[in-house]
């Protein structure tokens, strides 16, 4: 049921914006995994619109939004110092707002004052009002002794009071804000006047028309900020005519912006709890390690922190797909988790598709490639050394057969079992040709493997 609610919101937001399925999917992944999302695209590509349409469908969540500039100061994002917290005898507003007893006494005093206004000659009402005034004043003094002198920040309506934050053009923030933003984005904490508070933000979102040039000395300071956005999406102008016309019909039909599908903040927390229960099989971790190594061979930097932190995003992708555990195909959703620069997107996509779309087929192809290389080495051996080369080839084929057995066991569908059978047939054919080249009767690979193990 919770998954259905998330999918309904995604579908409704997709109907509001053309060709933004990837962005909508990544917003959902960010919220489910508690990650941050950065969106890069030219002006007018509905970046902010899609984020706002999505987050306004989360009922009960406190939202914070701000367009950042060099003039944006820390108070605008995190709140201002409550001067009452520094004045002897005064009580910080935050303490008064959160104290149940103080609020109850205030309500009783308000009622007593109302009764007295209704009948100023009522001595009992006047006496009761005076008693409540004295009681409230005494209680306020007690709170002052307990909490006075400790610096406090008024955070109502600011980031420390929000569940979802949209910081537009975050790279235009002043240098003085960077440390506070870094701590908030990474640790979900904020420190002011020596007092550290936890921030309940689930996800930070940001959009920009351009990326900093991190090779530029002046802009290198922004690299850590960029690194705190685990997920990244690049938007483009709408490509398809049918998509553009669909949005136009929606707008002109008077249905644009209608909110029908929603889920609550508590339901989002429940979704996150379900996501954490999605298991990650060891085979998927091994496959992800293959992806890591291949990307690094392709010259794409994937930090250890990125690699070790892939789990929550993969679990969120599996949950959205309705899987009880992370499957290889769920790793395809990591495309927007693994790139650093837009130029790397195609390479990342290609590696993920090759290794994760059908990992068994990929590994079978690698196995056959090794078999063909070994056969090529055998064929290149001089005639007088063929017999010795065949002994080496047989040992290699026996090892490949044992590797094939592992892959065959991993096959889960009829198609995968067919792929494994075809690969074995190809191995047997290569083995047969090599033996016949030496005028020997070939033994099946299963027997070769047994003989090699016995030896």
UniProtKB/TrEMBL annotation:
SUPFAM superfamilies: P-loop containing nucleoside triphosphate hydrolases. Residues 295-351 form the ATPase RavA-like AAA lid domain. Pfam families: AAA_lid_8 (PF17868), bpMoxR (PF20030). It comes from the Bacteria. Residues 5-93, 144-242 form the MoxR domain. InterPro entries: MoxR, P-loop_NTPase, RavA-like_AAA_lid, RavA_ATPases. This is AAA family ATPase. It comes from Agathobaculum faecis.
